[in-house]
Design brief:
Strand order of the largest sheet: 1-2
Largest sheet: 2 strands, antiparallel
Structural class: mainly alpha
Order of helices and strands: HHHHHHHEEHHH
Number of strands: 2
Radius of gyration: 23 Å
Length: 158
């Protein structure tokens, strides 16, 4: 049992005579193994899957492509892709949880922008690659052409 811990580079617990006779040794050992076998909550596979799932929705890809051009608030994204506000907020939350998008507050506005990729290396790689992907897609071209016309002051006054 301890050889697997040692193969992972983890020093197994020292067991003295008293510990051998303790009734909770197996319970303690179980939690010790769990603690050091899975030390990172959401390891590399989980991070990778989270990023790829976030980019599996076409509307979220559109949001990322728009944020490559400028930071935007929820109402601007909503006006651009013409979805309901709760749907847009949910998409932004999924992108944020995956490490693809960050936000900053400026007065009443919550501005979303692309993340720097420090929290998730897979997000950083996909964001770099996505800059060159889908540039000639008709839907993306239409969105990026309409971006200069989208103004938060005009949208939120409606």
């Amino acid at each position: 049992m301890f050889t697997r811990l040692q193969n992972l580079g983890i020093q197994p617990p020292q067991i003295d005579e008293f510990s051998l006779h303790a009734s909770n040794l197996s319970f303690s050992l179980y939690f010790y193994i769990l603690r050091f076998t899975y030390p990172i909550k959401g390891g590399p596979m989980k991070q990778f899957v989270k990023v790829t799932k976030a980019l599996s929705d076409p509307n979220r890809v559109k949001i990322v492509k728009m944020l490559q051009h400028r930071s935007m608030c929820v109402c601007e994204v909503q006006a651009a892709i013409q979805l309901a506000q709760p749907t847009v907020s949910n998409h932004l939350k999924v992108l944020e949880d995956a490490g693809l998008v960050t936000y900053s507050k400026s007065g009443l506005w919550v501005n979303y922008s692309l993340a720097d990729g420090k929290s998730n290396p897979y997000a950083a790689t996909l964001l770099r690659n996505l800059r060159h992907w889908l540039e000639k897609d008709p839907e993306i071209l239409d969105l990026t052409d309409r971006l200069p016309e989208i103004n938060r002051e005009q949208i939120c006054r409606k």
